[in-house]
Design a protein that fits this description.
The complex is a heterodimer. Chain A has seven helices and no strands. Chain A has helices at 2-15, 23-41, 49-61, 65-95, 101-117, 121-126, 137-145. Chain B is mainly alpha-helical. Chain B folds into two domains: 1-90, Rna Polymerase Sigma Factor, Chain: A (Orthogonal Bundle), CATH 1.10.1740; 96-173, Arc Repressor Mutant, subunit A, CATH 1.10.10.10. Chain B is built from eight helices and no strands. The longest helix of chain B is centred in the C-terminal third of the chain and has 29 residues, at 144-172. The radius of gyration of chain B is 17 Å and the shape is globular. The chains are: A mainly alpha, B mainly alpha. Chain A binds chain B through residues 5-6, 8-10, 12-14, 16-21, 25-26, 28-30, 32-34, 36-37, 40, 55, 59, 63, and chain B through 5, 7-8, 11, 15-16, 18-20, 23, 33, 36-37, 40-41, 43-46, 49, 63, 66-67, 70, 91-94, 96, 101, 104-105, 108, 127-128, 130, 155, 158-159, 166, 169-170.
Chain lengths: 146, 173
Amino acid sequence: MQNDETEKFERLLKRQQLRQVPADWREEVLSAAKEAQSARRSPVKNRSFLSALNDRVTSLLWPHPVAWAGLAAVWIFIFALNFSIRDKAPAMAEKTPPPSPTVVAELRQQQRLYAELLGANDSVDADRPKIFVPRPHSERVDILTV
Amino acid sequence: MRRGTEIERLYDDHASSLFAFLLNFTRNESDTRDLLQEIFVKIAREPQLLENLREERAFLIRLAHNSAIDLIRRRDTRDRTKQNFAAERISAFAPANDPDVAFFRNELSMALGELPEEQRSVVHLKLWEGWTFDAIAEALEISPNTAASRYRYGLDKLRERLRPVYREITNAE
């Protein structure tokens, strides 16, 4: 019953004739279109690279250029942020002044003390080159007996 | 019959449909003319847009729909209110000699004007272009289910709004 009524109503609506496009619009619209067509053809050689690029990009991004531009802006912002963070880190390291000789000496002193406390004097001496003096075998035996 | 240039052929084949669709969508004759011109200028500038198209009409309706939405977005609220006020007298239907039919068309035009734009465009394409929901969905870049539900809501509102007039007309028939 409901469906019948809906179908009847749809049929009634479909029967209503729509207005035709006013006849005088044809010439106006077509002359504007032809003008655009000839403007497109003639300056092709003289057109700058940028305007050609602009046309290409506009047709590529159409019908939502603003949305695409917004998205591009967000990406540019993200890249810029990323690069600025990456550039800052080494710059800070470069800006740190080298330790003064006093500080270096102090650190070495502390290192030596630490090694002594651990009983690792040998390791400290091990760094020094050993002076080897060749001796006769008899003397070497003496040392052993002592 | 001489068909003239390609752009003339396009105009002769599709201008009436585009005109009715745009007039129903914008409810403004001068906007409709501007948009129609904008569409044909765009095609004249970029003829490659029409290459390898399956359905010229569907593509042109999509172009018209997007241009109309852009136009509405460009306007501020004050202008739109003014426009709606003026639109109450704009009809997308042909004038009729029979006073009953003329009255019904006038009421139908006003009822269509009260529908949201998205419902109005689906109702228009379904009823007066005879498109399927799939075709409507493709042209308006929505899902077929959305197209179907917009049509149902729109039709229900029209029926409610036109019920008294509709009864008179069907009784007279």
